[in-house]
Amino acid sequence: MRVFTRHILPTLGLALLAMGCGSDSTNALAPQFQPEVVNTPNVAFSFQATGLTDISDALNYTWSVSSGSMVIHPATSTTGGTLTLNIKDASGVVIYDGPVPATGDISPPNGTAGSWKVRVTLAQYSGTINFALQMQ
Questions:
Q1: I need a surface site. Which of 2, 22, 37, 135 has the fewest CB within 10 A?
Q2: Is domain 24-135 annotated with CATH 2.60.120?
Q3: H/E element holding 12?
Q4: pLDDT tens per residue across span 52-63
Q5: Is residue 17 scored above 70 in pLDDT?
């Protein structure tokens, strides 16, 4: 019994701790696809996930900006489903609500500086997501 207590229980405890840490269990992207999100206040917000197959989910983030001007830089490869990006400024005004194209920068209208809401919605999405929001 002593061996069990000294070796098995600590290992079990670490395994349970690892299961409890990390991504929200309601996020269909994690842990299987492990999206990379870089959220740098007043600079950029970027989102990348590869190898997605038939994923449906909605992910919400807050990005703090000191300027109301930004550009969307997409580099996405969609093989199925839809990917939608919704951005609201600090006043709750929708700055952008639409698909994330494969290429081509998007310059939405200016918004109110502060805490912006970024929502990424996938509907039966397959492919690779890669986009960045860059403050101007």
A1: 2
A2: yes
A3: helix 9-20
A4: 999 999 999 999
A5: no
